[in-house]
Specification:
It is built from 12 helices and 20 strands. With 556 residues, it is of the alpha+beta class. Among the domains are: 213 residues, no CATH class; 170 residues, no CATH class. Helix 3 crosses helix 7 and helix 4 packs across helix 5.
């Protein structure tokens, strides 16, 4: 292709793709039926070039956006013969072994965009569906031992052919779901989203021409690579390694090698795949490494297919980060955030100006459901929870944020939860658990109380950083743990971090406690005015102010 195209035009096309991806995001959000999508934004949208390289992305979960290019590439590989992919086709994928990347609840829709009989781009989205069948309501069980127990598998099949729905596929989807009305609503929201993207891309191509459009995407990828290479030159060079014990007692290991033109993450020396659902696919492991790479190189700049060309990930087939089929992967997200946190901790001592102390570093996925006491219908809740981030050399950690993997998501408002689900939200606040003191303290974790309003409800959850606490830096205090406390109506209490299908009765309370992030620096060096401000705002008690910060001793 010619390199004489007007750079202003190329910039306009590249920004137009970003706008199109954002519009796809808005369409999915505004038309979805489930609160996990339209309130929490447990979703992602994106546009790839004709080869499946990411070219533009909407808001939402960063780890989800990293899925979409891999799904498109799988679809292209599977349907490689002429005529197998046609204008108006839409494909559906949720199989982590064949382009689905995460777990079966996360459905990916992909759509080719044709111009003059050739594919010029793809539109794609991913969203968490409340139930896709399987052995338990919500389709996610910590007791699953193979993927077949986690729901129906869609390994990249046509959902819509030449613009017309394939009715048999729709019937299979709804027949294997405990909440078919929600599934149908979320499915058509996804269809609307990819079609919006197709329409906008065709408008761009019709305005500027096919050749200019294709060159703009190629130029954009090359620019993304150059940004990363320039950023790599600013990083410390060498080989850095870390071993860390997990709550399960297993040891995770990582070695990172940084050169002027490569960022190599070696995860080969890690435990064999888990017999349960605590595994993540090789593609998703790559996504986790991509997020760290972006965090430490150029977090404020663009992210596209070219951005990650300098990244190399080494894996061992049969390990927890690259399991063999049919290993279960329903709780993949906790392994993903463990991986992200492991690599960040490995690099933290070598990049003190770029990486804060450890945060709550768990998705804290909380699933519960039952029969709605007012409507008599099934309800299912899936909530990622808010927690505290670690302190840094520039300031205190942020309180009440989602984990690094969950990015631009939101908590479900109490009013929406109470209206849509069979629960009452009794309490929502930062908690008072010890942890995170420092020159710059960790952000506070959160306590949420959900009161169950009908008998025979159920709870499934899997929290990490429950035993091995968020890690401190430069003499700070470790953070507090993530855990769930069940307060029974009869006054009994039970504490969990991993539980599947726990039966709950009327007036039982699910008390979620997420971790406060770890501190950075010696607490005794903290400015006393800041200590007094923390005391005034309720971030610490007078006892904590004296014990960790020496308030009385240093004030005298």
């Amino acid at each position: 292709m010619s390199n004489s195209y007007d750079p202003i035009t190329l910039e306009i096309i590249q920004n137009s793709l970003q706008a199109a991806a954002d519009e796809m995001f808005a369409a999915l959000r505004r038309t979805a039926m489930s609160a996990i999508i339209y309130e929490v934004l447990d979703m992602g949208t994106g546009i790839t070039d004709r080869h499946g390289e990411l070219a533009g992305s909407g808001a939402g979960i960063p780890a989800f956006v990293g899925v979409l290019d891999k799904t498109v590439k799988h679809t292209l590989k599977k349907f490689s013969q002429p005529g197998e992919i046609e204008p108006g086709d839409i494909f559906i994928t949720n199989d982590p072994y064949h382009g689905g990347v995460t777990h079966l609840n996360d459905m990916v829709l992909t759509m080719p965009v044709f111009v003059e009989g050739e594919i010029v781009a793809w539109t794609a989205n991913i969203a968490h569906w409340n139930d896709v069948g399987g052995m338990v309501p919500g389709s996610m069980s910590t007791n699953a031992t193979e993927i077949f127990q986690e729901g129906m598998i869609y390994p990249g099949v046509k959902l819509i052919s030449k613009g017309k729905p394939i009715q048999s596929v729709f019937e299979i989807l709804t027949a294997n779901c405990r909440m078919p009305d929600f599934l149908t609503g979320d499915l058509w929201a996804g269809v609307a989203s990819v079609r919006v993207g197709e329409r906008r891309i065709l408008e761009i191509v019709n305005k500027y021409g096919r050749d200019v459009f294709l060159y703009a995407l190629e130029d954009y990828m090359n620019y993304g690579e150059q940004v990363s290479l320039n950023a790599l030159k600013q990083l410390p060079k060498g080989i850095f390694s870390l071993e860390e014990e997990q709550d399960s007692g297993q040891i995770y290991k990582v070695t990172v090698e940084i050169t002027d033109d490569e960022f190599i993450v070696d995860l080969r020396d890690n435990p064999d795949q888990d017999p349960g659902p605590f595994n993540m696919s090789a593609d998703d492991t790559t996504v986790g490494c991509q997020m760290v790479f972006k965090n430490v190189t150029s977090p404020g700049r663009i992210a596209n297919g070219g951005t990650f060309r300098p990244l190399k990930v080494l894996l061992r087939h049969g390990s927890v980060f690259h399991p063999k089929h049919p290993a279960a992967s329903g709780i993949y997200y906790e392994i993903g955030i463990r991986l992200h946190d492991l690599i960040m901790r490995c690099l933290a001592e070598h990049m003190p100006d770029r990486i804060p102390a450890g945060g709550f570093a768990s998705i804290c996925g909380t699933l519960f459901g039952g029969i709605h006491p007012d409507t008599g219908r099934n309800y299912a809740v899936i909530e990622p929870e808010l927690g505290g981030w670690g302190g840094s050399p520039t300031g205190d950690g942020m309180p009440g944020q989602f984990s690094a993997f969950h990015g631009e998501t939101y908590n479900c408002p109490a009013e929406v939860a109470e209206a849509r689900y069979g629960v009452t939200v009794d309490y929502l606040s930062f908690h008072d658990d010890d942890g995170g003191a420092g020159l710059y303290r960790g952000g506070k974790g959160v306590r949420i109380d959900y009161r169950i309003r009908s008998d025979n409800a159920w709870l499934t959850a899997a929290y990490t950083r429950s035993k091995v606490l968020p890690w401190s830096l430069k003499g700070g205090q470790d953070g507090s743990p993530n855990y769930i406390l069940i307060r029974r109506a009869n006054g009994a209490k039970e504490r969990y971090s991993v539980i599947s299908g726990l039966t709950l009765m009327t007036d039982d309370v699910i008390q979620v406690n997420t971790a406060t992030g770890a501190g950075w620096g010696d607490p005794k060096q903290r400015d006393l005015d800041l200590v007094r401000e923390d005391l005034k705002n309720g971030y610490i008690s007078i006892e904590q102010a004296n014990r960790y910060y020496g308030l009385d001793e240093r004030s005298s």
